[in-house]
Amino acid sequence: MKMHMALTAVWLFSCAVAAAAQEITKVEEAGISYRVIVAAPSQIRVVWKDEKQNQLKQIPAADAYLRRNGEDPVMITNGGIYEPGLVPSGLLIQEGKEMNPVNRRKGKGNFFLQPNGIFLIRDGKAEVLDTVDYRGGTGVSFAVQSGPLLLKGGKTHPVFKANSKYRLHRNGTGVRKDGKVIIAITDFRQAKLPTLHDFADFFRRKGCDDALFLDGDISLMRGRGELGKRGNPFASMIAVVAEARG
Known about the structure:
By secondary structure, the protein is an alpha+beta fold. Helices cover 16% and strands 35% of the residues. The protein has 3 helices and 18 strands.
C-alpha cells in the first residue's frame, strides 16, 4: 500500500512538472525580464498557411487553424524573419511539406549575419543547426530558418560584442542538452533590454549549446487567455501544444 501511494505521488508530481513546463513563465536574468516556455519536441508546431493554403498572418488565425486540427495551443510566437508579402526569408517546413526553400544567399540584415541557422524537428528530435549543415532529407516535420545563430556548439556568434550599444526587444529558440526546446522573448516596457551577446548568454545559462535568433521589435508571445488577441502580422509562427503526438 505504501509503495502504491509512493508511486502515485511520484506520478502526480511528474504530471505537475510536465504541466508546468508547458506554460509561459517569467524569468529574470542579469536585470532583464523574459517570458519563457519549455516544451518537448513533439509539442512543437511551425505554421504559415492553413488547409486552403491561405496565409495565417495573425496569432488568432494560427490558434484557430491548430484547433481545427485537434490541437490545444498553449503558446504561439512569431517564427523567423520574413520578406514583404509575409513570405518567410528562408526554409519553412510545415507538417513535413517544404513550403519555402532554404536560403543560402548573401545579403544584409540579421537574417544574413552568418552563420544563420535553422530550427527543426526531425524524427521526433529538435535541432538548431547552421544553415550550411542542412542537407534536407526525410524525417523533418517542421522547420524554420532565421538568423543569426545565437549559439553554435556552445560558442557565441563571432560577430556579437559584449559591449554593444544595441539593446532591443528579441525572441529566439534553443535546444537544451536534455533535448527540450526553450523559447524566450524579452518583456516589453522594461528599463533594460539585451544585446545579441546577452541574448546568447541567456540561452547558454538555460542549458543550450545551440540557439537561434527569431526576430526583433515586432515579436510577440501569446499564452492561454491571450491567443485571441490580434497584433503584428507574421509569416511563420511557432506553437507549443498541450499534448505531444504519439
